[in-house]
Amino acid sequence: MRDIFVLTHYPVSDMENANLSRTSASSGSRAKASTDQADGTNIIVIGTGPVGIRAARMLKGQNPSHNILVFGEEATTPYNRVQLSLYLYGEVSRDALNLPTKSELEDDIRYHFGKKIVVIDKENRLIIDQHGQSYLYDKLILATGSKAVFPDLRGKTLTNTFTFRTLEDTDNLLARKKHGHGVYIIGSGPLGIEAAIGMKTRDNRVYLQARNYLLDPSLDKKAQEILGDSLQTAGIYVIEGDNTENILGSEHVIGVELSSGRIIECDTVIFCTGVTANKALAESAGLATNRGILVNDVMQTSDPHIYAVGECSEHGGKTYGLVTPGFEQVTAMSTHVAGNALPYTGSNTNIKLKFGSQSSALIGNVIDANCETVVYANRLKGIYRKLFLINQALVGYIYIGNWAELSQLQQAHVSATRIKAKNLEQFEQTGFLWDDPKPTHIKDQPEEYIVCLCENVTRGTLTKAMESGNRTIDSLCSATNAGVTCGSCKPLLAEMLDAPTQNLVMRHYKSIYWYSILAIALMVTTVMLNPIGIGESSQVNWQLEKLWFDNFWKQVSGYSLLLLSLLAAGISIRKRWKKLNVGHLDDWRYVHSIIGVIALVMLMIHTGMRLGHNMNFVLMVVFLAATLTGSLVGVFMARNHHWTDLKLREHRAWWSRVHYTLLWMLPALLSYHILAVYYF
User: Fold this and answer.
1) How confident is the model over 88-101, as pLDDT tens digits?
2) How far is 222 from 529, CA to CA, in rounded Å?
3) N or C terminus of the chain: which is more exposed, having fewer CB within 10 Å?
């Protein structure tokens, strides 16, 4: 393919001279074209996605004399398509998606939104929009992206079937999310998984149909199992080995039929079954195409005046469905337009996925059969880690689950560091490469440490921007372009600024909140109501009196209280002892809150709401104080996704420490109480 095109390098001055002579000899068609463009090199970009906007900005930055027009079929201003998943999930607002279209260098870039280009006239070097208006170009950049592919299924056009590609698609899904009770997603690549996570609510059921694999085919069976476990934990039902045959319904979706004959009831179907390059416009112009628009190493098409970048292009037999390769292609293209050569040699298809506290990624070279691989997997902990090495140099890695060494790992990958044999042996046993896996604060990283992989922004660049007065996340993103693509580095930007970030919603947060409120109410009842005495009220059943005053039942309630206190205190060890790091922390918090309420009810039964005297009084005070502090922590944790103030977090940490201290006093005091009452 690379031998098809002749690469011609035009100095900018020669291009302008050629343009002037060509304009003077223009045909009738060119004479009728729009005079919207001034004298100079006319460059038109078709496509207002991140890659198209990047192309326009880079070309303008290289030569401010360029006359640049940008056309977008969508009526909306440019937005960040990469962060649509975060928008669906509720982590970013609609305004946060907007891509700025003005800067000091961009005053002369003219944007045309809602104008679809329907014709490319190569002979006269002009384009025509849907209204019949034509525009001249010297260089044309195609950044038309891709479109969703639909499987051949009966019922695919029923009401409440959706795709997930554009802002309009996402807005439709957000509206449906409020009303849908059963969501079925066809396709289990990154987009399918993100759609499943984004559509999950507390009240609906989400099914993810995995035809051949989860996330990426380069994940082995063990990795697929661990990722599947994580999705199941998030409340997503993964269907494997049972493909979708039909979508059921007459007008609206009512379910899907699988190849096994199984029927799944649902009212929403989302297609995430891959994409294909938007090449129709290029084909109609007679440009060479295959799966995408064929390009050479400087992104020229079969017409040397036309370039193609991003998802619509095909280079070296490959098309890329990710934004980062598009950015790399723009660099090669814009450098060539400027009269130089920086050949594009292909891209790594890095994949990042994050949901809740879980993160997964495939970074670097993870498909080379010549790589040596080292794997650590622990399904119980939901951890999978795989290193790819050539001559012991780290060339790629895959991980599922959080990994404290990621900052060190990234540096080792960027520098192709050789990993010592003893470190690899340690990795196979423990999952850690280095002796101290504690995460390093971002400010302690070297200046060349890359914080934003999408835009290649280093810690040193961020520091300089901060020293120039950019002291908010938005201004820091605007000044450096960090965080504007996929947004996964924003927590690191917040760490640079010592700024709070919005917390993720805790599992069971509503239940934990109301259990905490109930515990506070029971505690107030215990303190405020008069203690219960024998026969004091005819309303107290004699069987209930036995719970309060019969010696046997007093022992039952007392020992039960001791056991519950030990369980509640023991759960706190789970966060501090790695060997007990089983299950999700939020699930254990939920269990802890239930145990707390049951223990408080048992206390009321055991004491008859009497506060007691001397040591008994001390025991009651400690128990009630532990309940109060624990309930306050529970309320805070349940509402933590609304409270981002750092001082509030500090208060929560302080109350947690007090709660744990009181909690661990209870077993000792209860044991002393039992010994004093029953054995002395």
Assistant:
1) 988 888 888 887 65
2) 57
3) C
Residues 6+ apart with CB under 8 A from 536: none
Extract the tokens encoding 363.
Answer: 């970074």
Determine the Cα–Cα distance for residues 381 and 230; give it in Å rounded to an integer: 10
Query: Is residue 508 predicted with pLDDT exceeding 50?
Result: yes
**Residue 628 to residues 511, 517, 574, 590, 613, Cα–Cα distance (Å):** 17, 10, 22, 17, 21
Helix, strand, coil content of the chain in percent (nearest 5): 40, 20, 40
Extended strands (E) in 454-581: 457-458
pLDDT of 531 higher than 70: no
Is residue 4 scored above 50 in pLDDT?
no
Please give the Cα distance from 148 to 417 (Å, whole number). 39
Residue % of the chain over a pLDDT of 70: 75
Torsion angle defined by CA atoms of residues 295, 298, 302 and 305, in that order, rounded to the nearest 10 degrees: 140
Cα gap 397→405, rounded to integer Å: 12
* Residues near 62 by beta carbon (within 8 Å), at least 6 away in sequence: 334, 337, 338
Residue 311 CA to residue 308 CA, distance in Å, equals: 9
Q: Which range, 353-367, 380-394, 547-561, has the best average confidence (pLDDT)?
A: 380-394
CA distance 656 to 666: 16
Is residue 269's pLDDT more than 50?
yes
Strand partners, 375: 386
Question: Could you tell me the pTM of the whole model?
Answer: 0.65
Q: If you ran DSSP here, which 8-state letter would residue 486 be given?
A: S
If you ran DSSP here, which 8-state letter would residue 437 be given? -
DSSP assignment letter at 503 = P
Run of H or E including 232: helix 221-233
Distance CA 90, CA 177 (A): 11
Cα–Cα nearest to 143, from 70, 245, 87, 211: 70
User: In this structure, are residues 81 and 50 in contact, taking their beta carbons and an 8 Å threshold?
Assistant: yes
* 236 Ramachandran zone, left/alpha/beta (phi>0; psi -120 to 50): beta
Element containing residue 476 per DSSP (H, E): helix 473-480
SS3 at position 368: coil
| pLDDT at position 544 | 53
Tell whether the model's pLDDT for residue 103 goes beyond 60. Answer: no
Distance CA 29, CA 140 (A): 17
Query: In this structure, are residues 360 and 403 in contact, taking their beta carbons and an 8 Å threshold?
Result: no
CB count within 10 Å of CB 404 equals: 15
At residue 515, φ and ψ (nearest 5 deg) are -65, -40
